[in-house]
Amino acid sequence: MGFNLSYNSFTNSILTKVTSLETVVKLLFHLSLSAALSDNGQHSPTWHRNTCIVLGCIAEKLAGANSVATFRQETLHYLTANLKMNHNPNVILFSLIALEKYAQTSENRSTICAYFNQQNSHPLKVLESWLTSDDFVQRQVGFCAQWALDNLFVKEGRSYSFEVVDTKGINAMLNHEDVSEYLKIGPNGLEARCDVSSFESVRCTFQVTEGVWFYEALIVTPGVMQIGWATKDSKFFNHEGYGIGDDEFSVAYDGCRQLVWHNASSEQHSHESWQPGDILGCLLNMDSRQIQFYLNGSALPKAHTKLFDSLGRRKDVGFFAAASFMSFQQCRFNFGADPFVFPPEGIAFCCFNDFAELSDEQRVILP
């Protein structure tokens, strides 16, 4: 099974000690959160990043009235003060994610929106400019800022991203109607991110039934993602930790743990662990009944065939590009709208973008 329990174990280790509202209040008192504390955070970014992760855990697990009761003004001022662009990007990122989790409760969301609207410059609008940064932590901040502005902290006078992002040349994208419930999909339909403690999955919009096909994924974060191919029969059980590669109808490359997954079993592969900026290539050859994975143009020594063995000689099987994401993971897909960085050499292949079609309505990723 592909689910990594490290995040759940971390949150549970915190929450076994945080068993009541009274305990949470004591913890917050001990942390002594404030805007002034944030200003000192540049000298100890690891402590502040971890503090923000803890706050996010509390907000995610203690929803409703308890979340409102623990979201004090000091917490609000601390987290929002962390959003200054001169702060460590990791601290900014997890402060923003903590605010997102507090905003799951409508009263907290209203409080945060009111605070943002009182500022001369909306901090998330500023951070959104990092969306295409070459620094991959800043890029995550930009993605989360854009998503939050579209979905949670809507700014009056700002157009929704789907209204301004040009998707006319994109003919295949992640399918916002074939996705588990908590995955974030960017307005271009090509970038996805998970910030919850479940294993979130998605398929693309285009199915292939014959021939040789290739796509790439830009790795934004180096953690647990399972990226590969799935049929329409592959199931997403996000809360149970089952995703792509965890049933007989899918296969996935896991560059963090250096594994190839199929039917909830894994085989070690020889590539180095992936890093931000790496390019994963996924080649499906339905003629030879093989699947090959590439990291920065380097192919695995042995192609994968077990998925085809599981499916037998069925002629009604079609495949989708698909992926699953563990907490705080993000990548961007290229289905051929842009030139491939490492196209397979010596192999004639097709790309989705040259054959797929999307209506104007299908191109829109609504908040």
TrEMBL record:
<dbReference type="Pfam" id="PF00622">
    <property type="entry name" value="SPRY"/>
</dbReference>
<keyword id="KW-0863">Zinc-finger</keyword>
<protein>
    <submittedName>
        <fullName>B30.2/SPRY domain-containing protein</fullName>
    </submittedName>
</protein>
<keyword id="KW-0862">Zinc</keyword>
<dbReference type="InterPro" id="IPR043136">
    <property type="entry name" value="B30.2/SPRY_sf"/>
</dbReference>
<feature type="domain" description="B30.2/SPRY">
    <location>
        <begin position="152"/>
        <end position="340"/>
    </location>
</feature>
<dbReference type="InterPro" id="IPR035774">
    <property type="entry name" value="SPRY_RSPRY1"/>
</dbReference>
<keyword id="KW-0479">Metal-binding</keyword>
<dbReference type="InterPro" id="IPR003877">
    <property type="entry name" value="SPRY_dom"/>
</dbReference>
<dbReference type="InterPro" id="IPR045129">
    <property type="entry name" value="RNF123/RKP/RSPRY1"/>
</dbReference>
<dbReference type="GO" id="GO:0008270">
    <property type="term" value="F:zinc ion binding"/>
</dbReference>
<dbReference type="GO" id="GO:0051603">
    <property type="term" value="P:proteolysis involved in protein catabolic process"/>
</dbReference>
<dbReference type="GO" id="GO:0005737">
    <property type="term" value="C:cytoplasm"/>
</dbReference>
<dbReference type="InterPro" id="IPR013320">
    <property type="entry name" value="ConA-like_dom_sf"/>
</dbReference>
<dbReference type="InterPro" id="IPR001870">
    <property type="entry name" value="B30.2/SPRY"/>
</dbReference>
<dbReference type="GO" id="GO:0004842">
    <property type="term" value="F:ubiquitin-protein transferase activity"/>
</dbReference>
